[in-house]
Design goal:
This protein is mainly α. It contains eleven helices and two strands. The chain starts with a helix and ends with a helix.
């Protein structure tokens, strides 16, 4: 029994500093002052006034409004997740099922691209965006972020497609279905857990992204929440840390809620996908 508790104790010790920081963040957003982890003063919503009265927050007067900035962040993250899911699901299926010359080299190249840090490609990316006329535009930043996430997405989806029995696709192809129909109607439903996991990962990566929007959208006309938090923090010693912690908590909550929702959805999809695969395999074996 004690041996089973050792991994949990190690994980608790490793995550305890992070949990303490989030507790401090929560307290600081609802109280005027926090000493250590002890809130001082009465409970207040004044730090959250940037939601209904942003003009009263000095740090937000010359920054992007909170609602359009939140919409920009949602559009940015959802677009990145959508592009990564579409391209990765098609490329992963092709790499899993089709045999073509240079396939192993292509797989190695995809893995090599994933190993490059984003910062090492900023200059080359800047040149490409300027040439395409997408510099300082949200669509250009979306494409760049999606491109950086595609190598990992392709590898993940290839692994999920490798687990799908070939007999299921063969039965569909023999019945006259095309490759695209087989991929869309037979294979994709069986790898729904992988799609949900990859979609969540890509969305969170886009939600927390700071470097790419900061480097390629200097005007701030389509700023994201990460840029807004940085802009407030950049005020130095004049920062209202109550507002900053409230804004930080507001920044974290949507991604956390999405994670909890998709976690439950992922559990249901995993169970349903396993039952569907078992039934399909049983029917194929009978045939």
């Amino acid at each position: 029994m004690a041996a089973r508790l050792v991994p949990y104790a190690v994980l608790l010790l490793a995550t305890l500093p992070i949990l303490i920081l989030y507790v401090w963040l929560l307290y600081s957003s609802f109280f005027q002052r926090v000493e250590g982890l002890r809130p001082v003063g009465a409970f207040t919503l004044d730090n959250w006034r940037f939601l209904w009265a942003p003009e009263t927050v000095e740090q937000l007067r010359n920054k992007a409004p909170i609602i359009p900035t939140t919409i920009n962040t949602v559009v940015f993250s959802a677009s990145v997740a959508g592009i990564v899911l579409l391209v990765s699901s098609m490329a992963g299926y092709a790499l899993s099922r089709l045999k073509f010359k240079g396939r192993r080299m292509f797989l190695g190249g995809v893995l090599l691209l994933h190993s490059f840090p984003t910062i090492t490609l900023l200059i080359a990316t800047f040149v490409v965006l300027r040439a395409l006329g997408l510099y300082d535009q949200l669509v250009g930043v979306i494409l760049v972020k999606a491109a950086f996430e595609l190598p990992l997405g392709i590898w993940l989806m290839k692994g999920f497609f490798d687990t799908v029995p070939w007999d299921l696709e063969m039965a569909a192809l023999v019945d006259g279905a095309s490759r695209i129909t087989t991929w869309r109607r037979i294979v994709l439903p069986l790898v729904k857990p992988g799609l949900l996991a990859l979609g969540l990962l890509a969305f969170v990566e886009g939600w927390k992204e700071f470097l790419i929007p900061f480097a390629f959208m200097p005007s701030g006309t389509q700023a994201t929440l990460a840029l807004l938090v940085r802009a407030i923090l950049g005020e130095g010693r004049f920062v209202d840390y109550g507002v900053l912690t409230a804004l930080g908590l507001f920044y974290v909550l949507p991604a956390l809620l999405l994670f909890l929702f998709l976690k439950q959805l992922l559990r249901g999809s995993t169970a349903a996908g396993s039952r569907g695969r078992d039934r399909a395999c049983a029917s194929c074996s009978k045939d």
